[in-house]
Design a protein that fits this description.
- The complex is a heterodimer of chains A (194) and B (280).
- Chain A has 194 residues and is an alpha/beta fold.
- Chain A has 6 helices and 10 strands, in the order αβααβαββαβββαβββ.
- In chain A, α5 packs parallel to α6.
- Chain B folds into 2 domains: 185 residues, Rossmann fold; 45 residues, no CATH class.
- Chain B has 280 residues and is of the alpha/beta class.
- Classes of the chains: A alpha/beta (194), B alpha/beta (280).
- The interface between A and B is large, with 36 and 44 residues.
- Bound molecules: zinc ion.
- Zinc ion binds next to β12 and α6 of chain B.
Protein backbone atom coordinates (compact mmCIF):
# COMPACT_ATOMS: atom_id res chain seq x y z
CA UNK A 1 0.00 0.00 0.00
CA UNK A 2 2.36 2.71 -1.15
CA UNK A 3 -0.20 5.50 -0.71
CA UNK A 4 -0.05 5.05 3.06
CA UNK A 5 3.55 6.06 3.22
CA UNK A 6 2.95 9.38 1.47
CA UNK A 7 3.21 12.32 3.77
CA UNK A 8 0.07 14.42 3.90
CA UNK A 9 0.00 18.06 4.88
CA UNK A 10 -3.43 18.22 6.53
CA UNK A 11 -3.01 20.12 9.78
CA UNK A 12 -4.72 18.24 12.59
CA UNK A 13 -5.41 21.41 14.56
CA UNK A 14 -6.09 24.21 12.10
CA UNK A 15 -7.33 22.36 9.00
CA UNK A 16 -9.59 20.24 11.23
CA UNK A 17 -11.00 23.37 12.81
CA UNK A 18 -11.72 25.10 9.51
CA UNK A 19 -13.12 21.99 7.86
CA UNK A 20 -15.29 21.30 10.90
CA UNK A 21 -16.83 24.75 10.54
CA UNK A 22 -17.56 24.01 6.88
CA UNK A 23 -19.22 20.73 7.86
CA UNK A 24 -21.19 22.52 10.58
CA UNK A 25 -22.31 25.13 8.05
CA UNK A 26 -23.65 22.48 5.66
CA UNK A 27 -25.33 20.52 8.47
CA UNK A 28 -27.03 23.66 9.78
CA UNK A 29 -27.95 24.80 6.26
CA UNK A 30 -28.95 21.64 4.38
CA UNK A 31 -28.44 21.57 0.61
CA UNK A 32 -26.03 24.54 0.74
CA UNK A 33 -22.78 23.68 -1.02
CA UNK A 34 -19.31 24.56 0.22
CA UNK A 35 -16.04 23.65 -1.45
CA UNK A 36 -13.46 21.72 0.53
CA UNK A 37 -10.93 21.19 -2.27
CA UNK A 38 -8.18 23.09 -0.40
CA UNK A 39 -8.40 20.47 2.39
CA UNK A 40 -8.70 17.52 0.01
CA UNK A 41 -5.56 18.75 -1.77
CA UNK A 42 -3.59 18.20 1.42
CA UNK A 43 -4.37 14.49 1.38
CA UNK A 44 -3.66 11.72 -1.05
CA UNK A 45 -5.39 8.75 -2.70
CA UNK A 46 -8.59 8.46 -4.71
CA UNK A 47 -10.85 10.00 -2.07
CA UNK A 48 -8.94 12.84 -0.43
CA UNK A 49 -12.12 14.77 0.40
CA UNK A 50 -13.42 11.80 2.39
CA UNK A 51 -10.07 11.46 4.14
CA UNK A 52 -10.20 15.12 5.13
CA UNK A 53 -13.69 14.66 6.61
CA UNK A 54 -12.51 11.46 8.34
CA UNK A 55 -9.50 13.23 9.84
CA UNK A 56 -11.77 15.97 11.15
CA UNK A 57 -14.42 13.76 12.77
CA UNK A 58 -13.01 10.29 13.40
CA UNK A 59 -10.65 8.85 16.01
CA UNK A 60 -10.31 5.74 18.14
CA UNK A 61 -13.54 6.60 19.97
CA UNK A 62 -15.73 5.81 16.95
CA UNK A 63 -16.26 3.02 14.42
CA UNK A 64 -16.49 3.29 10.67
CA UNK A 65 -17.09 1.24 7.56
CA UNK A 66 -15.90 2.03 4.04
CA UNK A 67 -18.34 -0.12 2.11
CA UNK A 68 -16.71 -2.10 -0.68
CA UNK A 69 -13.52 -0.04 -0.60
CA UNK A 70 -10.68 -1.81 1.23
CA UNK A 71 -8.10 0.80 0.25
CA UNK A 72 -10.13 3.64 1.71
CA UNK A 73 -10.80 1.60 4.86
CA UNK A 74 -7.08 1.03 5.22
CA UNK A 75 -6.28 4.70 4.75
CA UNK A 76 -8.95 5.91 7.19
CA UNK A 77 -7.90 3.52 9.94
CA UNK A 78 -4.24 4.39 9.35
CA UNK A 79 -4.89 8.14 9.55
CA UNK A 80 -7.50 8.27 12.32
CA UNK A 81 -7.16 5.05 14.37
CA UNK A 82 -10.94 4.68 14.12
CA UNK A 83 -12.21 1.13 14.57
CA UNK A 84 -13.20 -0.77 11.46
CA UNK A 85 -16.69 -2.13 11.86
CA UNK A 86 -19.53 -3.66 9.88
CA UNK A 87 -22.03 -1.24 8.38
CA UNK A 88 -24.61 -2.31 10.99
CA UNK A 89 -22.58 -0.92 13.89
CA UNK A 90 -20.52 1.84 12.26
CA UNK A 91 -20.90 5.45 13.40
CA UNK A 92 -19.64 6.66 10.02
CA UNK A 93 -20.23 4.86 6.74
CA UNK A 94 -18.26 5.89 3.66
CA UNK A 95 -19.75 5.02 0.27
CA UNK A 96 -17.55 5.64 -2.76
CA UNK A 97 -19.45 3.42 -5.19
CA UNK A 98 -23.17 4.06 -5.67
CA UNK A 99 -23.67 0.32 -6.17
CA UNK A 100 -23.21 -0.12 -2.40
CA UNK A 101 -25.47 2.75 -1.41
CA UNK A 102 -28.69 0.76 -0.97
CA UNK A 103 -27.01 -1.80 1.22
CA UNK A 104 -25.35 0.90 3.31
CA UNK A 105 -28.61 2.74 3.93
CA UNK A 106 -30.44 -0.48 4.84
CA UNK A 107 -27.77 -1.57 7.30
CA UNK A 108 -26.94 1.81 8.83
CA UNK A 109 -27.93 2.17 12.47
CA UNK A 110 -30.68 4.74 12.97
CA UNK A 111 -30.49 5.16 16.75
CA UNK A 112 -33.43 4.58 19.07
CA UNK A 113 -36.27 6.82 20.21
CA UNK A 114 -34.40 7.08 23.50
CA UNK A 115 -30.93 7.59 22.00
CA UNK A 116 -31.40 8.94 18.47
CA UNK A 117 -27.80 10.19 18.45
CA UNK A 118 -26.56 6.59 18.32
CA UNK A 119 -27.14 6.64 14.59
CA UNK A 120 -24.88 6.60 11.55
CA UNK A 121 -23.66 9.44 9.38
CA UNK A 122 -23.35 8.26 5.79
CA UNK A 123 -20.74 10.02 3.67
CA UNK A 124 -21.40 9.51 -0.01
CA UNK A 125 -19.19 10.26 -2.99
CA UNK A 126 -21.12 11.82 -5.84
CA UNK A 127 -19.97 12.07 -9.42
CA UNK A 128 -21.34 13.03 -12.77
CA UNK A 129 -23.87 15.56 -13.93
CA UNK A 130 -27.08 16.43 -12.14
CA UNK A 131 -29.76 13.87 -12.85
CA UNK A 132 -32.62 15.92 -11.48
CA UNK A 133 -33.87 18.50 -9.05
CA UNK A 134 -34.75 17.81 -5.44
CA UNK A 135 -37.07 20.15 -3.63
CA UNK A 136 -36.23 19.95 0.06
CA UNK A 137 -37.84 21.18 3.24
CA UNK A 138 -36.83 20.99 6.91
CA UNK A 139 -34.89 22.69 9.70
CA UNK A 140 -32.09 24.87 8.36
CA UNK A 141 -34.03 25.63 5.19
CA UNK A 142 -36.12 28.75 4.74
CA UNK A 143 -39.36 27.46 3.21
CA UNK A 144 -38.03 25.10 0.54
CA UNK A 145 -34.80 24.80 -1.41
CA UNK A 146 -34.20 23.35 -4.84
CA UNK A 147 -31.08 21.24 -5.25
CA UNK A 148 -29.66 20.08 -8.56
CA UNK A 149 -28.45 16.60 -7.69
CA UNK A 150 -26.61 13.70 -9.31
CA UNK A 151 -28.24 10.28 -9.31
CA UNK A 152 -26.45 9.07 -6.16
CA UNK A 153 -28.05 11.87 -4.12
CA UNK A 154 -31.52 11.25 -5.50
CA UNK A 155 -31.15 7.51 -4.87
CA UNK A 156 -29.82 8.06 -1.35
CA UNK A 157 -32.85 10.14 -0.37
CA UNK A 158 -35.27 7.65 -1.94
CA UNK A 159 -33.59 4.76 -0.14
CA UNK A 160 -33.67 6.61 3.14
CA UNK A 161 -37.37 7.46 2.67
CA UNK A 162 -38.05 3.77 2.03
CA UNK A 163 -36.71 2.95 5.50
CA UNK A 164 -39.65 4.84 7.05
CA UNK A 165 -37.74 5.75 10.17
CA UNK A 166 -39.76 7.09 13.04
CA UNK A 167 -38.14 10.46 13.81
CA UNK A 168 -35.95 11.20 15.79
CA UNK A 169 -34.47 7.95 14.51
CA UNK A 170 -32.77 8.29 11.16
CA UNK A 171 -29.48 8.71 9.33
CA UNK A 172 -27.72 11.88 8.23
CA UNK A 173 -26.09 12.23 4.81
CA UNK A 174 -22.99 14.15 3.83
CA UNK A 175 -22.22 14.24 0.10
CA UNK A 176 -18.81 14.97 -1.42
CA UNK A 177 -18.13 15.40 -5.11
CA UNK A 178 -14.78 14.73 -6.77
CA UNK A 179 -14.39 18.47 -7.30
CA UNK A 180 -14.67 19.02 -3.53
CA UNK A 181 -18.27 20.17 -3.27
CA UNK A 182 -19.71 19.26 0.10
CA UNK A 183 -23.33 19.41 1.25
CA UNK A 184 -25.57 17.62 3.70
CA UNK A 185 -29.11 16.33 3.99
CA UNK A 186 -29.76 15.56 7.67
CA UNK A 187 -32.52 13.18 8.80
CA UNK A 188 -35.27 15.75 9.27
CA UNK A 189 -34.88 17.25 5.80
CA UNK A 190 -37.42 15.71 3.46
CA UNK A 191 -38.20 15.68 -0.20
CA UNK A 192 -41.18 17.80 -1.12
CA UNK A 193 -43.87 16.07 -3.14
CA UNK A 194 -44.24 17.94 -6.41
CA UNK B 1 -3.03 39.72 24.96
CA UNK B 2 -0.49 37.24 23.64
CA UNK B 3 -1.05 33.56 23.26
CA UNK B 4 0.56 31.39 25.88
CA UNK B 5 2.47 28.73 23.96
CA UNK B 6 2.33 26.25 26.83
CA UNK B 7 -1.31 25.55 26.01
CA UNK B 8 -2.85 23.62 23.14
CA UNK B 9 -4.53 25.89 20.66
CA UNK B 10 -7.95 26.60 22.23
CA UNK B 11 -6.80 24.81 25.39
CA UNK B 12 -8.64 21.49 25.07
CA UNK B 13 -6.94 18.55 23.37
CA UNK B 14 -7.84 17.60 19.81
CA UNK B 15 -9.53 14.34 20.86
CA UNK B 16 -11.89 16.22 23.18
CA UNK B 17 -12.59 18.81 20.48
CA UNK B 18 -13.45 16.04 18.04
CA UNK B 19 -15.92 14.52 20.46
CA UNK B 20 -17.56 17.87 21.09
CA UNK B 21 -17.66 18.55 17.33
CA UNK B 22 -19.32 15.20 16.64
CA UNK B 23 -21.82 15.99 19.41
CA UNK B 24 -22.56 19.42 17.93
CA UNK B 25 -23.29 17.90 14.50
CA UNK B 26 -25.72 15.38 16.04
CA UNK B 27 -27.37 18.18 18.01
CA UNK B 28 -27.89 20.14 14.79
CA UNK B 29 -29.33 17.06 13.02
CA UNK B 30 -31.83 16.47 15.86
CA UNK B 31 -32.95 19.99 16.89
CA UNK B 32 -33.89 20.34 20.55
CA UNK B 33 -32.58 16.90 21.55
CA UNK B 34 -30.01 16.92 24.35
CA UNK B 35 -26.99 14.97 23.09
CA UNK B 36 -24.77 13.60 25.88
CA UNK B 37 -21.01 14.17 25.70
CA UNK B 38 -17.98 13.65 27.92
CA UNK B 39 -17.58 17.09 29.47
CA UNK B 40 -14.02 18.19 30.29
CA UNK B 41 -12.59 19.84 33.35
CA UNK B 42 -11.50 23.40 32.65
CA UNK B 43 -9.31 25.63 34.82
CA UNK B 44 -12.21 27.94 35.60
CA UNK B 45 -14.79 27.92 38.32
CA UNK B 46 -18.02 25.96 38.22
CA UNK B 47 -20.98 28.05 37.22
CA UNK B 48 -18.90 29.96 34.74
CA UNK B 49 -20.49 28.12 31.91
CA UNK B 50 -18.00 25.38 31.13
CA UNK B 51 -20.47 23.81 28.67
CA UNK B 52 -20.64 26.99 26.62
CA UNK B 53 -16.88 27.51 26.80
CA UNK B 54 -16.19 23.97 25.61
CA UNK B 55 -18.42 24.57 22.59
CA UNK B 56 -16.72 27.89 21.87
CA UNK B 57 -13.24 26.33 22.17
CA UNK B 58 -14.23 23.53 19.80
CA UNK B 59 -15.58 25.97 17.21
CA UNK B 60 -13.02 28.72 17.33
CA UNK B 61 -10.16 29.36 14.91
CA UNK B 62 -7.81 32.17 13.91
CA UNK B 63 -10.38 33.69 11.53
CA UNK B 64 -13.01 34.15 14.23
CA UNK B 65 -14.05 37.26 16.09
CA UNK B 66 -15.42 36.53 19.56
CA UNK B 67 -17.93 38.42 21.66
CA UNK B 68 -18.78 37.33 25.21
CA UNK B 69 -21.72 38.69 27.17
CA UNK B 70 -23.16 37.96 30.56
CA UNK B 71 -26.61 39.28 31.49
CA UNK B 72 -26.38 41.51 28.42
CA UNK B 73 -23.04 43.06 29.38
CA UNK B 74 -19.63 42.67 27.73
CA UNK B 75 -17.96 44.18 30.79
CA UNK B 76 -19.17 41.87 33.56
CA UNK B 77 -16.47 39.97 35.44
CA UNK B 78 -17.69 36.69 33.99
CA UNK B 79 -17.65 37.87 30.40
CA UNK B 80 -14.25 39.55 30.77
CA UNK B 81 -12.70 36.46 32.34
CA UNK B 82 -14.03 34.13 29.65
CA UNK B 83 -12.74 36.50 26.97
CA UNK B 84 -9.32 36.60 28.68
CA UNK B 85 -9.20 32.83 28.97
CA UNK B 86 -10.13 32.20 25.32
CA UNK B 87 -7.78 35.01 24.29
CA UNK B 88 -4.87 33.42 26.18
CA UNK B 89 -5.18 30.14 24.34
CA UNK B 90 -6.21 31.32 20.85
CA UNK B 91 -5.15 34.91 20.11
CA UNK B 92 -8.53 35.52 18.44
CA UNK B 93 -9.82 39.02 17.97
CA UNK B 94 -12.60 40.02 20.34
CA UNK B 95 -15.29 42.62 19.91
CA UNK B 96 -18.22 44.16 21.75
CA UNK B 97 -20.10 44.91 18.52
CA UNK B 98 -22.62 42.17 17.81
CA UNK B 99 -22.37 42.69 14.05
CA UNK B 100 -18.60 42.12 14.04
CA UNK B 101 -18.65 38.80 15.90
CA UNK B 102 -18.60 35.36 14.25
CA UNK B 103 -19.08 33.56 17.58
CA UNK B 104 -21.03 35.07 20.46
CA UNK B 105 -20.95 33.33 23.80
CA UNK B 106 -23.67 34.42 26.15
CA UNK B 107 -25.47 33.80 29.38
CA UNK B 108 -29.00 35.07 30.12
CA UNK B 109 -29.59 37.13 26.96
CA UNK B 110 -29.77 36.99 23.17
CA UNK B 111 -28.50 40.25 21.63
CA UNK B 112 -31.03 42.82 20.41
CA UNK B 113 -29.26 43.18 17.06
CA UNK B 114 -30.68 40.46 14.76
CA UNK B 115 -28.05 37.78 14.14
CA UNK B 116 -26.94 36.69 10.67
CA UNK B 117 -26.57 33.28 9.10
CA UNK B 118 -22.77 33.44 9.39
CA UNK B 119 -22.93 33.92 13.16
CA UNK B 120 -23.15 31.29 15.90
CA UNK B 121 -24.65 32.05 19.28
CA UNK B 122 -23.38 29.80 22.08
CA UNK B 123 -25.56 29.77 25.19
CA UNK B 124 -24.37 28.65 28.60
CA UNK B 125 -26.90 26.35 30.24
CA UNK B 126 -26.98 25.48 33.96
CA UNK B 127 -29.91 23.00 33.80
CA UNK B 128 -30.60 21.68 30.30
CA UNK B 129 -33.58 19.49 31.18
CA UNK B 130 -36.87 21.39 30.68
CA UNK B 131 -38.82 18.58 32.38
CA UNK B 132 -36.80 18.78 35.60
CA UNK B 133 -39.47 21.00 37.17
CA UNK B 134 -42.00 18.19 36.79
CA UNK B 135 -39.74 15.13 37.13
CA UNK B 136 -36.60 14.75 39.23
CA UNK B 137 -35.32 11.53 37.71
CA UNK B 138 -33.05 11.75 34.65
CA UNK B 139 -34.05 8.21 33.73
CA UNK B 140 -37.71 9.22 33.64
CA UNK B 141 -37.23 12.49 31.76
CA UNK B 142 -35.17 10.63 29.16
CA UNK B 143 -38.09 8.21 28.76
CA UNK B 144 -40.58 11.07 28.54
CA UNK B 145 -38.59 12.63 25.68
CA UNK B 146 -38.34 9.23 23.97
CA UNK B 147 -42.11 8.79 24.15
CA UNK B 148 -42.88 12.46 23.52
CA UNK B 149 -44.79 12.33 26.78
CA UNK B 150 -45.11 15.98 27.72
CA UNK B 151 -48.45 15.74 29.54
CA UNK B 152 -46.93 16.55 32.97
CA UNK B 153 -45.39 19.72 31.50
CA UNK B 154 -48.68 20.81 29.97
CA UNK B 155 -50.44 20.06 33.25
CA UNK B 156 -48.00 22.31 35.11
CA UNK B 157 -48.67 25.17 32.70
CA UNK B 158 -52.41 24.58 32.94
CA UNK B 159 -52.37 24.59 36.75
CA UNK B 160 -50.37 27.79 36.77
CA UNK B 161 -52.96 29.33 34.49
CA UNK B 162 -55.86 28.22 36.69
CA UNK B 163 -54.24 29.33 39.92
CA UNK B 164 -52.67 32.62 38.87
CA UNK B 165 -54.54 33.50 35.71
CA UNK B 166 -51.28 33.35 33.76
CA UNK B 167 -48.28 31.11 33.23
CA UNK B 168 -45.83 32.11 35.92
CA UNK B 169 -42.60 30.72 34.46
CA UNK B 170 -40.28 33.72 34.13
CA UNK B 171 -37.06 32.50 32.56
CA UNK B 172 -36.21 29.12 31.05
CA UNK B 173 -39.66 29.21 29.45
CA UNK B 174 -39.87 25.94 27.46
CA UNK B 175 -40.27 25.68 23.71
CA UNK B 176 -41.45 22.91 21.43
CA UNK B 177 -38.89 22.29 18.68
CA UNK B 178 -39.97 20.91 15.29
CA UNK B 179 -43.09 19.56 16.99
CA UNK B 180 -40.99 16.88 18.65
CA UNK B 181 -38.84 18.00 21.60
CA UNK B 182 -39.63 20.26 24.51
CA UNK B 183 -36.44 22.18 25.21
CA UNK B 184 -35.04 24.62 27.74
CA UNK B 185 -33.82 27.86 26.15
CA UNK B 186 -31.50 28.46 29.16
CA UNK B 187 -32.21 31.32 31.60
CA UNK B 188 -33.01 33.94 28.98
CA UNK B 189 -36.08 36.14 29.51
CA UNK B 190 -39.26 35.18 27.66
CA UNK B 191 -38.59 38.36 25.67
CA UNK B 192 -35.81 36.47 23.84
CA UNK B 193 -37.74 33.23 23.16
CA UNK B 194 -39.23 34.41 19.82
CA UNK B 195 -35.68 35.03 18.52
CA UNK B 196 -35.10 31.26 18.55
CA UNK B 197 -37.84 30.64 15.99
CA UNK B 198 -37.04 30.75 12.28
CA UNK B 199 -33.79 32.60 12.97
CA UNK B 200 -30.95 33.27 10.55
CA UNK B 201 -28.22 32.10 12.92
CA UNK B 202 -27.32 28.79 14.55
CA UNK B 203 -27.93 28.47 18.29
CA UNK B 204 -25.83 26.01 20.30
CA UNK B 205 -26.54 25.24 23.96
CA UNK B 206 -23.90 23.77 26.26
CA UNK B 207 -24.37 22.34 29.75
CA UNK B 208 -21.00 21.39 31.25
CA UNK B 209 -22.02 19.91 34.57
CA UNK B 210 -24.88 17.91 33.05
CA UNK B 211 -22.79 17.02 29.98
CA UNK B 212 -25.36 17.89 27.31
CA UNK B 213 -25.25 19.82 24.05
CA UNK B 214 -28.31 20.79 22.04
CA UNK B 215 -29.05 23.08 19.12
CA UNK B 216 -31.56 25.10 17.19
CA UNK B 217 -30.44 25.45 13.57
CA UNK B 218 -31.51 28.42 11.43
CA UNK B 219 -35.10 28.40 10.16
CA UNK B 220 -36.23 25.87 12.73
CA UNK B 221 -39.71 25.76 14.18
CA UNK B 222 -39.27 26.55 17.88
CA UNK B 223 -42.48 27.69 19.51
CA UNK B 224 -42.89 28.73 23.15
CA UNK B 225 -45.42 26.42 24.82
CA UNK B 226 -48.87 28.00 25.03
CA UNK B 227 -52.55 27.15 24.83
CA UNK B 228 -54.71 28.00 21.81
CA UNK B 229 -56.88 30.36 23.83
CA UNK B 230 -54.05 31.74 26.01
CA UNK B 231 -51.19 32.71 23.72
CA UNK B 232 -47.56 33.02 24.84
CA UNK B 233 -46.74 36.44 26.21
CA UNK B 234 -43.28 37.90 26.61
CA UNK B 235 -42.40 40.62 29.12
CA UNK B 236 -43.89 43.93 28.07
CA UNK B 237 -42.20 47.28 28.57
CA UNK B 238 -45.10 49.25 27.16
CA UNK B 239 -44.81 52.92 27.92
CA UNK B 240 -41.22 52.56 29.13
CA UNK B 241 -38.02 53.50 27.39
CA UNK B 242 -34.28 53.32 27.91
CA UNK B 243 -33.08 56.34 29.90
CA UNK B 244 -29.85 56.38 27.89
CA UNK B 245 -30.74 55.65 24.25
CA UNK B 246 -34.51 56.04 24.29
CA UNK B 247 -35.21 52.60 22.80
CA UNK B 248 -38.76 51.40 23.34
CA UNK B 249 -38.41 47.93 21.84
CA UNK B 250 -35.56 46.41 23.87
CA UNK B 251 -35.43 44.32 27.04
CA UNK B 252 -35.08 46.85 29.87
CA UNK B 253 -33.46 46.51 33.27
CA UNK B 254 -35.22 48.41 36.03
CA UNK B 255 -33.10 50.70 38.17
CA UNK B 256 -34.18 52.28 41.41
CA UNK B 257 -32.72 55.49 42.73
CA UNK B 258 -32.96 55.16 46.51
CA UNK B 259 -32.23 58.87 46.99
CA UNK B 260 -35.07 60.17 44.85
CA UNK B 261 -37.27 57.06 44.86
CA UNK B 262 -37.36 57.28 41.08
CA UNK B 263 -37.67 54.19 38.87
CA UNK B 264 -35.64 54.20 35.68
CA UNK B 265 -35.06 51.82 32.85
CA UNK B 266 -32.13 51.05 30.61
CA UNK B 267 -31.26 48.49 27.94
CA UNK B 268 -30.02 45.20 29.35
CA UNK B 269 -27.97 44.75 26.15
CA UNK B 270 -25.34 47.38 26.93
CA UNK B 271 -23.44 47.19 23.63
CA UNK B 272 -26.67 47.64 21.67
CA UNK B 273 -27.47 50.67 23.80
CA UNK B 274 -24.01 52.12 23.13
CA UNK B 275 -24.33 51.45 19.40
CA UNK B 276 -27.68 53.28 19.31
CA UNK B 277 -26.02 56.22 21.05
CA UNK B 278 -23.04 56.09 18.70
CA UNK B 279 -20.60 55.46 21.55
CA UNK B 280 -18.92 52.43 19.92
ZN1 LIG C 1 -30.56 51.86 25.63
Amino acid sequence: MPSLTKIHSFDEVFDSQRLFRQILTVMANPARKVNIKEFADRLHGDNPGMLAVAMTLLDNEVGFCAVGNADLAEEISFLTFAKREEAETADYIFVTDAAFLGDAVKKAKCGTLRDPHKSATIIVRTEGADAGELSLRGPGIKDTVSLGAPQAVISAIEMRDAQNYEYPQGVDFIFISDSGELFSIPRLVRKEAF
Amino acid sequence: MKMNKNYNYAFIDEGSKREIRRTILKAVAIPGYQVPFGSRELPIGRGWGTGGIQITLSLIGPEDVLKVIDQGSDESVNAVNIKKFVGLCTDVKTTVKTGEATIIQTRHRIPETPLRNDQILVLQVPIPEPLRIVEASEEKTKKMHAERDYAPMWLLLYESLIRYGKITIGTEYPLMVEDRYVMNPSPIPKFDNPKLKDSECLYLFGAGREKKIYAIPPHTFAESLAFDDVPFEKESFKGKRCRLCGSEDTYLDELFDSATGERMYQCSDTSYCMEVRGCI
